[in-house]
Amino acid sequence: MVLLLAFGAVGFLFATTKPLYRVQVVEIQNVLASEQEIMLDLLVEAINPNIVAVTIAEMDVNIFAKSKHVGSERYWQDQPESDFLGPVIEDRLTPLGRRRRQISSPEDVDPSFHSLDDDPHDPIEDPEGDSQTMLLGRIFHFDSPLNFDGDPLKRRPHYSIGELRLQKPGNKTEAGGTERWERVIQYPFELIVRGILRYQLPLSSSTHTAPIGASVAVHPEKGINEEGAMWIEQVRRKHVYDPGEEEG
């Protein structure tokens, strides 16, 4: 009897301490961007081989904007303050509700997006060092965390949506960051998310990480769509991907 209990305890522990695998961002959704704030949702896929659910609330993620209107740091350092801004744009975050879709399978992902990338297996380029890319800021917490149900037998991918918010994009990240962002947001630009997710398993004190990366083309010139978000086009590339334990 004691042996059975011991084996049961070991089995339970083994079935609750495995890290997530095949963690990746499927889509960036519900983007809202203004001079003062960026809000977006990440649709994330993962396989949870444990018998209990795993929640992800922490991250270390950089947000970038890529546009020909970014300009170099030196250019913005040399400009007098009065020349920083082009035409003034309206605040696009005046109270707008965001409706979130419930995702349970790949078929639920909106099939109507237009892919901007001709080869989905192209790796994402490192945004840092690109003269057309600027760092907007760094995020450490989800506003609304991810949650992945356990599936130790079939090990099917599960999907969850997490909400992110970045205050004062470009502020104190690069020379002329705020002014550069205010110019970028007047035109179509690519929004890039790159970093890691951090989480702990329910019965473990160890911290696990999973690299992620995704990008989306944003069209401020089109205004707001019927769902209360900006018009976007998914950029399909082979972003950061950690297969983990690809077990049967």
UniProtKB/TrEMBL annotation:
Pfam families attached to this UniProt entry: Vac7
Entry GO terms, CC: fungal-type vacuole membrane; PAS complex
The entry's keywords: Signal
Annotated region (Disordered), positions in chain: 96-130
Leader sequence segment: 1-15
Coiled coil: none
Keyword Signal part of the UniProt annotation: yes
Biased composition (Basic and acidic residues): 115-124
One annotated GO biological process: protein localization to vacuolar membrane
Protein name per the record: Putative phospholipid metabolism enzyme protein
Record organism: Botryosphaeria parva (strain UCR-NP2) (Grapevine canker fungus)
Taxonomic classification: Eukaryota, Fungi, Dikarya, Ascomycota, Pezizomycotina
